[in-house]
Amino acid sequence: MSDETAEHPESETGARVAVRRRRGADSVRRPRESGIQQGHFPAILRRSLKPIEPLSAEQIEAVHRASLTILEEIGIEFMGRAARDLFARAGARVDHATGLVKIPAALIETALKTAPESFRLTPRNPARAIELGHDALAFGLVAGPPNVHDCVGGRRAGNLADYKRLISLAQTFDIIHLLGNQATAPQELPVTSRHLDCYLANVTLTDKVYHCTAIGRERALDGIDMMAISRGLTREELRDDPGVLTIISVNSPRRFDEAMSDGLMAMSEWGQAVVVTPFTLMGAMAPVSLAAALAQQNAEALAGIALSQLTRPGAPVVYGAFTSNVDLRSGAPAFGTAENARATLAGGQLARRYKLPYRASNASASNVVDAQAAYESQMSLWSSVMGGANLVYHGAGWMEGGLTASFEKVILDVEMLQMMATLVQPFDTSDAELGLDAQREVMPGGHFFGAQHTLARYQTAFQRPLLADWRSYPAWLEDGGKNTTERATGIWQQALADFAPPPLDAAVAEALDAFVAKRQEERKNAQD
Amino acid sequence: MSDETAEHPESETGARVAVRRRRGADSVRRPRESGIQQGHFPAILRRSLKPIEPLSAEQIEAVHRASLTILEEIGIEFMGRAARDLFARAGARVDHATGLVKIPAALIETALKTAPESFRLTPRNPARAIELGHDALAFGLVAGPPNVHDCVGGRRAGNLADYKRLISLAQTFDIIHLLGNQATAPQELPVTSRHLDCYLANVTLTDKVYHCTAIGRERALDGIDMMAISRGLTREELRDDPGVLTIISVNSPRRFDEAMSDGLMAMSEWGQAVVVTPFTLMGAMAPVSLAAALAQQNAEALAGIALSQLTRPGAPVVYGAFTSNVDLRSGAPAFGTAENARATLAGGQLARRYKLPYRASNASASNVVDAQAAYESQMSLWSSVMGGANLVYHGAGWMEGGLTASFEKVILDVEMLQMMATLVQPFDTSDAELGLDAQREVMPGGHFFGAQHTLARYQTAFQRPLLADWRSYPAWLEDGGKNTTERATGIWQQALADFAPPPLDAAVAEALDAFVAKRQEERKNAQD
Fold first, then answer.
1. Residue A458: which pLDDT band, with cuts at 50, 70 and 90?
2. How many Å apart are CA A105 and CA A408, to the nearest integer?
3. CB–CB of B461 and A369 under 8 A?
4. pLDDT at site B25
5. Across the interface, which of A75, A371, A473 has its CB nearest the CB of B369?
6. In this complex, which of B328, B457, B473 lies closest to A462 when CB atoms are compared?
7. How close does chain A come to B129, measured CA to CA in Å?
8. Do B419 and A52 make contact, defined as CB atoms within 8 angstroms?
């Protein structure tokens, strides 16, 4: 037969053996076993595959040189006085009237010398520590959408109840390593203090690393203080053993607003991680050509990284990339495109040139959790992981180009993240794994279902899917014929039904409540 | 602002400029411009990215040595006498009672010396020639499903009308470079002669390379003869300038049935391409461990490749890989899994070790064109393309683990194939592309919509999607809120409405009709 389908079992025959999933000794213990089976991976995931490198060494240098020209000759606008003063003292040419800062190459080189190649962030549960740098790989929850969506309740404005449900999902799934910026904006709460409600939810409903909103100094310091309280540390102690991070999204092209640079400086001053991410949409906030967008991204990232190192040499900092393209007919932003993937791969080479940790994203423009959402996210994920990203931000739940956090998308992404985690595991070609005994045991045209080699491994072989349905068409149809998105609804519902917050010391909980009450009172009349 | 979403345009503002797609001088001219806009790529696509290499050099040798042990000591069953005789004459140890052939390493080495590293297949339109080898990359239409599905007519048994519509889609989209085995089996036609109806449709409705069904010698030779007629060549002339290929799917583990080896030998004897593809489902037809499955795949592939070279040294041959896993709970086959992707990446290293062209697949187990179909196919595509595959078989339309050819999946896959084709293009970091002029022109916080750099490139920048919808949620909802699968239905309907077959010389058409009539008469009482 030359027709492959002839070999496919139409019905589900074969070894119907119960599979209990491997749980490595180094995996994270959860306080309660959820009814949902998930993959178990090392607490700190590492990529054993070498990254894809699309640029030649000469091409990397060409982009590097162009970005130095932007920094030195064209300049970056810093709207904040504090940042400009710091640059001026370090030898940059500063025009306080226009805000333009022209940064000499030597200043960048000095900053790159002190920026660490790798660092750890430790939350209140030390087993949930993440590493950023080298071949470590961490995935974050969706961050920032003003809206939220699920297939039961539909699309709605972000709110605290949904915020809590989203971060509960992040706590449930081990493959989500950290919380990014607000998973959805709790829009019913005062803008001056909603960050406090979010931080409180973060440290009570989860025990993972979280993001501090660095819009000005105060919001950043509140997040730092609450992480310190949750770990029983002072702010000073946390400085030397960081636990939180922030994303600084540049107002591309070439502008850092004041709140952003003040927030950046507060985080660096207190030793917490800063991820500098130019938002360089080709054709809109960046030139239409990939090389030019990369040069701009690189200049903006290096400017932010330099500011962090001027603030505190050695402060943990990450090279962020978010170069995608727009639809030139409409100006609509696109994500998970081939151009986005190419930029992400190339961005990793630039980050590695500077020996910096690298951040990319799992992004999609789809308005619904469907095939487009999946293939755009896969383009993002493959290029992020194989581009050498240490942090895949928006790892689970990002929909509509970031305007909506989706519950079904969280589940879809968890499935895909688990697949990526399996993909990057090392290969074992020991004699036992090469299995010549199994070949000797099974006759030509036979099968390996009952082979000793199989029986010895069936409990741990293969990543069991969370979401994929591999049943035959008749069996699938008989069971309701649900598509993947419909199945995802059932999974997040079960995960939330099963959810129990991680244990928290009563005294710590009390201290956190007191801190929030005090700070909410203080920020009642805040102007930022 | 540290919230990226703040920068996303909620409404579709920006440069609303008409974009006409680039059409390279070397792209294929279609007889009639379809209403559907598709990407335009070089006629022979090349991967400019280096492949991902998960195995170390030592690990490749370990798999190689294990496969030699299988070949030399454990043996491969060839049910066909002709194949066994050929192996015996070449020095293999043959047991005609059991069919077992034990193949010495020296015989394999000799075969590998004559197998070409790269070759071309030329169909009746020479502009549609494909290259298999080195960094060339070709995508095939879905092949072999007994069923067919679209969202209008539902799931049904394969038939000639649907067959013709599927290959018309393959002709429409330039990114589908060749036709594989029957896109769906025309089950209403006699099994003894339906291959003739399919070949006739192939050479009249398309002008691309197609697959010959190598179930025995006759079906293979019919396909060879019809390609020869369509090109105005004799069978002898076609031998030195091949135009067709076949897939030889091994009855894993370690068995080639008689029809298969006879078909393989007929194709090689007449200089046409043979793709030897073990179907090694881990846990079923192959051991449960990846290393063992790779060793088995390698042994089976090398056995088939050796047979082709014994038949005719220098005959074009391809190393095929189809190693995936089953669900160990049910025995159901799974495709597009992380394990499948790992095997595909590793398989490419083995093919390159032997300097052979490499074949992989775009596969998914999903029963419906949805998120699972997309993410499993993306796992397959990324690992195929970045594994260095020259031929991605089942490139468009494969659903239900190969049991159904889907019209919507064809469209979804064409979208993803075009993205992969964009992904692998070379980077341009020339001064013009680095765009420092654009940086000088645009102020901080401004935009590049109207920059000279943008205006000079807007006609050719970015791969325009066939299927993705990048509009804002309100605009998308206003227009019906169709998901990706629903949009795909409209696209294949339009493509078929627009379809016109490529021109065919009347005398050639007559000769083909006469050949088919004669052969159908001859095969009325065929036993195979």
1. confident
2. 46
3. no
4. 30
5. A371
6. B328
7. 23
8. no
Contacts of A429 in chain B (CB under 8 A): 55, 59, 62-63, 291
The SS3 call for residue A401 is helix
pLDDT 10s digit of each residue in chain B, 528 long?
334 333 333 222 222 222 222 223 333 333 444 578 899 899 999 999 999 999 999 999 999 999 999 999 999 999 999 999 999 999 999 999 999 999 999 999 999 999 999 999 999 999 999 999 999 999 999 999 999 999 999 999 999 999 999 999 999 999 999 999 999 999 999 999 999 999 999 999 999 999 999 999 999 999 999 999 999 999 999 999 999 999 999 999 999 999 999 999 999 999 999 999 999 999 999 999 999 999 999 999 999 999 999 999 999 999 999 999 999 888 899 999 999 999 999 999 999 999 999 999 999 999 999 999 999 999 999 999 999 999 999 999 999 999 999 999 999 999 999 999 999 999 999 999 999 999 999 999 999 999 999 999 988 889 899 999 999 999 999 999 999 999 999 999 999 999 999 999 999 999 999 999 999 999 998 988
Cα gap A528→A522, rounded to integer Å: 13
pLDDT tens profile A301-351? 999 999 999 999 999 999 999 999 999 888 899 999 999 999 999 999 999
* CATH class for the region spanning B111-423: alpha beta
CATH class name, domain A38-426+463-528: alpha beta
**How many Cβ atoms from other residues are within 10 Å of residue A121's Cβ?**
24
In this structure, are residues A170 and A176 in contact, taking their beta carbons and an 8 Å threshold? Answer: yes
Phi/psi at B100 (5° precision) = -75, 130
- A32 pLDDT band, cuts 50/70/90, is very low
Give pLDDT tens digits for A181-221: 999 999 999 999 999 999 999 999 999 999 999 999 999 99
In chain A, residues with a C-beta closer than 8 Å to the C-beta of B332 are 9, 12, 14, 470-472
Out of A2, A259, A337, whose CB is closest to B246? A2
Task: Please tell me which of the candidates B54, B401, B448 has its beta carbon nearest to residue A427.
Answer: B54
Beta strands in A357-441 (DSSP E): 358-361, 391-396, 398-399, 404-406
Specify the residue for token string 């995960």. A495
Other CB atoms within a 10 A radius of the CB of residue B19 amount to 17
Q: Kindly list the residues from chain A whose CB atom is less than 8 angstroms away from the CB atom of residue B282.
A: 461-462
A445–B255 C-beta distance less than 8 A: yes
What's residue A34's pLDDT? 52
For chain B, the domains span 111-423
Chain A contact set for B386 (CB, 8 A): 52, 382, 386
Closest-CA distance, A498 to chain B, in angstroms, reads: 24
ipTM of the complex: 0.94
Q: Say whether A419 and B379 touch across the interface (CB within 8 A).
A: yes
Count the neighbouring beta carbons within 10 Å of the beta carbon of residue B301: 29
Pairing of strands A255-256, A76-78: parallel
Alpha-carbon distance B507 to nearest alpha carbon in chain A (angstroms): 32
| Residue for token pair 């709790």 | A186
C-alpha neighbours within 13 Å on the C-beta side of residue A428: 11
Q: Is-contact A49 A427, C-beta < 8 A?
A: no
Judging contacts by C-beta atoms under 8 Å, the chain A residues touching residue B9 are: 284, 331-333
Closest residue of A to B334, CA-based? Answer: A470
Q: Is B384 helix (H, G, I), strand (E, B) or coil?
A: helix
